[in-house]
Design goal:
With 432 residues, the chain is of the alpha+beta class. The chain has a domain at 174-410: Naphthalene 1,2-dioxygenase Alpha Subunit, Chain A, domain 1, CATH 3.90.380.10. The chain contains 8 helices and 17 strands. It has helices spanning 23-28, 39-42, 44-55, 174-185, 207-214, 246-265, 370-395, 410-427, and strands at residues 60-64, 73-79, 82-88, 94-98, 112-114, 118-119, 126-127, 133-135, 154-158, 161-165, 194-203, 273-275, 283-288, 319-324, 328-332, 337-346, 349-358. Strand 12 (273-275) and strand 13 (283-288) form a beta hairpin. The structure holds FE2/S2 (inorganic) cluster and fe (ii) ion.
Length: 432
């Protein structure tokens, strides 16, 4: 039996007692290019601040508009102590309200469903889909219903992707980002798509670890199903390509040139943008080719849905990959789209919601097989979940000290520096 050579014990790192360090100090001493200190992933007080500074102040992705296709369809979203109703109104616009009755505060709606009007379960105050109070029994003559409309929440429907912002003054640059992104999303008509599947996965990790894991492909060897179609070169510059990845890179360049021809023929843009940390609505958009047949996320890159999205005419239409800070990413392909949101549920847990969208007329069992449609990302999500859980356990270990990012983790750095900037703004840390 082979004996493992004994490893000398690492000297215990001199670890500062972070609980006593103020958050301002933690933010001030954050070392660029390195992972965050343990406290950012383990401390309950800091987690509450994350919810305040990020989830209730910034624009967050909450749903695909296709989840509420008809007037009266609604869903609810919990954000910290808030609950938001997202509903399609009578003009078929997506609107959002605080899920709090204007009488004595009862929650109005649970989960998701369909309503003609929003009726409070407690004393039956009744609101229309525009949020106006229609009916409240036993009120004095001078009761002015117009003073008791539902309180609105900022909402945007970006070509079928629904974002809300709970701040009184939402970051204004959403409109500029939407202007840049919208022409890229338009051909897919996601607002009219059909939800083929939705899957919620509990992550045993702080929400930031889930996001950081998404922002790099340094670990993509851990995704055998994904990399049959997805080039594991995300965030790689040519000089980062190792000899091992060189053949993959050569295939990528050829596939990219072919994709450009296809997209030009359909008159759709192929530009890319990367502005991930300097603006409140940090975002990135790229059109990436796929490997193999180049059509979809499947073994060999073949299509997984026979009906293509929107106005798309060619199945090999690439992967429109969009990242938005703080909690979302999107893969929009010719034959389907997969959209992802991450919501914190506690300091050490989060929920990853994955939604698969197809053409509204695509029929399960005819145009697509549900298992094949979802197979790659279901497997990938499980693999990522395990990586995140292992990292959460590691960063909670007293011996953890922040480590350096590699050359291909620029977007992890961008996510973390975006986050640190928002936290600094929130705390108005002097000189930060
Ligand atoms: S709390 Fe809603 S009607 Fe009374
Ligand atoms: Fe991953």
């Amino acid at each position: 039996m082979t004996q493992l050579a004994a490893q000398p014990p690492s000297p215990a790192p001199a670890r500062e007692r972070v609980p006593t360090a103020s958050l301002a100090e933690l933010l001030r001493r954050r070392k660029t290019g390195h992972s965050l200190e343990s406290t950012f992933y383990t401390d309950d007080e800091l987690h509450d601040l994350d919810v305040d500074a990020v989830f209730t102040r910034q624009w967050i992705f909450v749903a695909a508009a296709a989840e509420i296709p008809e007037a009266g369809d609604y869903l609810t979203v919990d954000v910290g102590a808030y609950s938001v109703i997202v509903v399609r109104d009578d003009d078929e616009q997506v609107v959002a309200y605080h899920n709090v009755c204007r009488h004595r505060g009862s929650r109005l709606l649970e989960d998701r469903g369909f309503v003609g009007n929003i009726v409070c379960p407690y004393h039956r105050w009744t609101y229309d889909l525009e949020g106006s109070l229609l009916h409240a029994e036993a009120q004095p003559k001078d009761f002015d219903k117009s003073c008791f409309s539902l309180r609105t929440v900022n909402v945007r429907n970006l070509s079928g992707l629904v974002f809300v912002c709970l701040a009184a003054e939402a970051p204004e640059d959403f409109d500029r980002v939407a202007e840049l992104v919208e022409p890229h999303l338009r051909p897919y008509q996601l607002d009219k798509a059909k939800v083929a599947a939705q899957h919620d996965m509990e992550e045993r990790g702080n929400w930031k670890l889930v996001m950081e894991n998404n922002r790099e492909c340094y670990h993509c060897d851990g995704h055998p199903e994904l990399v049959t179609a997805y080039f594991p070169l995300f965030a790689y510059d040519e000089e980062d390509i190792s000899p091992r990845l060189r053949p993959t890179f050569e295939r990528y360049k050829k596939a990219e040139a072919a994709l450009e021809v296809v997209r030009r023929a359909q008159g759709v843009p192929m530009a890319s943008y990367r502005d991930l940390s300097d603006r409140p609505v940090g975002f990135q958009l790229t059109h990436m080719p796929l490997d193999g047949e180049g059509k979809s996320f499947s073994a060999g890159g073949g299509a997984v849905c026979a009906k293509l999205l929107g106005e798309v005419k060619e199945a090999a239409f690439g992967d429109l990959s969009i990242h938005l800070q703080p909690n979302s990413w999107f893969h929009v392909l010719g034959d389907h789209a997969v959209v992802f949101s991450v919501m914190p549920t506690s300091t050490t847990t989060s929920v990853l919601r994955t939604t698969w969208l197809v053409h509204p007329d695509a029929q399960e069992g005819v145009d697509y097989d549900l298992e094949s449609l979802c197979a790659v990302w279901k497997a990938t999500n499980v693999q990522d979940r395990d990586l995140v859980a292992a990292t959460q356990r590691g960063v909670a270990d007293p011996s953890y000290v922040p480590g350096p990012y590699s050359m291909v983790e620029d977007d992890v750095e961008a996510f973390v520096s975006w986050y640190v900037a928002r936290m600094r703004e929130h705390l108005a840390v002097a000189g930060a």
